[in-house]
Amino acid sequence: MNDGLIFRRVVKPLLGLLKQGVAPEKLALSVALGAVLGISPALGWTTALCALVAFFWRLNLPAIQIVNYFMYPAQIALLLPFFRLGEKLFRSPHLPLSVPQIYDRVRTDRWGTIQFLWNTTWHAVAAWAILAPLLTALLYSILVPLFRHFLRKQAAPLRSPEGKPA
Fold this sequence. Notes:
The chain has helices at 5-19, 24-38, 46-57, 61-70, 72-90, 99-108, 110-155. The chain is mainly alpha-helical and 166 residues long.
């Protein structure tokens, strides 16, 4: 059977951590924070941020980084929405940019792009920071029961079709 990329690279390793004894609550918090930190509009900082959070909160570093890594496409997709939300939040002028334009600017003048996008980026980070606790709580509340269910399913004794222990 050809498993999907996300199943092979994300779901299986996370379930493997549960089988190794990582508590469902700890794993759920690691995954939720990896996902939420992974969509931060501050490009280039998520790996270090996830590592720091995992260290200080004693979370599972592989779990938080696996999820963070796979959030990169979502981070790029959400970059402009966070820019726009930051513009609205701070009533700053609309910056007419697309993601390809940002990447082109970064390739030609990294420092100039950082200076150009400084206000827009910190406004976007502020907007993200307002949403981050809510998103983390939502993901955590969904993941804990799922991980607990998986553990119960793993711990259940095998039964024959007649309902007798195998």
